[in-house]
Task: structure prediction
Amino acid sequence: MKIGQVEIGKGTHVKVMGIINASPESFYKGSVRTSEREIAATAKKMQQDGAHVIDVGAMSTAPYLETVIPVEEEIRRMRQAVRAVKGACDLPISADTSHASVAEEAIAAGADAINDVTGLKYDGRLAGVVAGAGVPVIIGAYSKMPATGRLAGTIKALKESLAIARKAGIKETAVDPSIGFFREEGRNPFFTKMTDMPWYARDIEVLNSLDKLAALGPVCVSASRKSFIGHLLDIKGDDRLVPSIVCEAIAVLNGASIIRTHNVRETVQALTMLQLLKL
Result:
């Protein structure tokens, strides 16, 4: 799989995807950049720090927050953010959205991939948009119906989405187990309802079983500052850097090909050291 000219998957080094959120409602305020100047400066800094791809989000999908905004506003934010990143650095851009109309605008503005936490299931038009543009997609594990939090539920959800992608004619895909998005309850439609185990236990199980997902394609993992870390250690988002890095290193050891993170410099340093120690 390629995002822009960046090769991802077996036989290549793990890639780091830096997160820029053009959404003030995002759970980690340290990732929020709302002006073109801020977005451009952050993108440039991420490239200097060693990021391979930049992931732009224009609406938070954190399940425990009320974050849904009008599609028109998501389009405005996304268009501005993609253009700002494009003008500031040479890195390929992934657009984080579940809406077909937002994806269309993002691609028109210069996005090289779509990252959909709902695995092409929320908006029935999105698969066709991605296929028509010929861009790759990162498919998140998601089910509209209640599902088991066990690994089997994640694999089933991903296989359903991969079937949607194949039917639409999408040629390049990566999979994301959607850490943090399997919950007993939520405040928006972008999570999978599960009741058979605690949500934080599900996230730990997924991190420890990524090798079983690698058969589906390159695996993208985003554990950065996620709520399961906060729950387990009783710490706020600003204090979750060190445990985030540990989770990212474990993800790579277990087979992840892409690490999506708020902490580009620290993640690049940690994964470079990990690579050196494994030689």
In short: The first strand starts at residue 2 and ends at 3. The mean pLDDT is 95.
